[in-house]
Amino acid sequence: MKWLFNPCRRYRQDISLLASGVLPQPERDEVKNHLAACPNCRNYYEEMMALKMTLANWQQDLAHLQPTQAARNRWARAIQTAGKPKAVRHLTPAMAFREWSRDVIWPCRRVWTGLATVWVLILAGNFSLHDHSQTLSAKSSPPSQEMIMALKDRQNILAELLADHFELHDADRQKFFLPKPRTERMLVLTL
């Protein structure tokens, strides 16, 4: 991520090539101009030159070091197994789920745990409300015959009132929307 916001990131490869001595001449001048202006890239160039010097003198500096017999055996086994084809691994559904969970769930396990907790609470609330509504409907008794008759009477009274109200409004609307003579529409202003 830090490379993304580094304005000198495009010069890093060229600086490494300059330190090794294989950068072409036109690009070399541009990189040297940048090194003169940028202290961070200058430090990086000095590190590359120090590494180059260490690697150039490795025979003299590290000639006394010899690998142990165990290291030689490990290298020989690694070389022998590198040439052999690897066995194809058949994925079982459990192995596929384990790899998927390691890639998807494990890095964000706190988020997934929070979401799972919220869903469990929502489901628990939903089941408790669902059971409560069923018990209320089971406890209530059907309406009595007298109550049904009273409800029908009130419904009839309301229908009569609404019918009278709408008839009045329809008459007013017709009267309101009738075309008026032109003389009545003109408004005469007198001062």
Give a structural overview.
This protein is mostly helical. Helix content is 73%, strand content 0%. α2 (25-37) crosses α3. The mean pLDDT is 78.
Topology of helices and strands:
Elements: H1 12-20, H2 25-37, H3 39-56, H4 58-61, H5 69-83, H6 93-105, H7 109-139, H8 145-176, H9 182-185
Helix pairs in contact: 1-3, 2-3
Largest sheet, strands/sense/barrel: none
Q: Give the total of beta strands.
A: 0
Class from secondary-structure proportions? mainly alpha
Report the principal-axis shape: elongated
Helix proportion: over 70%
End-to-end C-alpha gap: 81 Å
User: Which percent band covers the strand fraction?
Assistant: under 5%
- Ranges where pLDDT stays below 50 over 5 or more residues in a row are none
Helices and strands, in order, run as HHHHHHHHH
Report Rg.
45 Å
Mean pLDDT, all residues:
78
Number of helices: 9
Task: Provide a brief overview of the structure.
This protein is mostly helical and 191 residues long. Helix content is 73%, strand content 0%.
Question: What are the key terms here?
Answer:
191 residues, mainly alpha, elongated
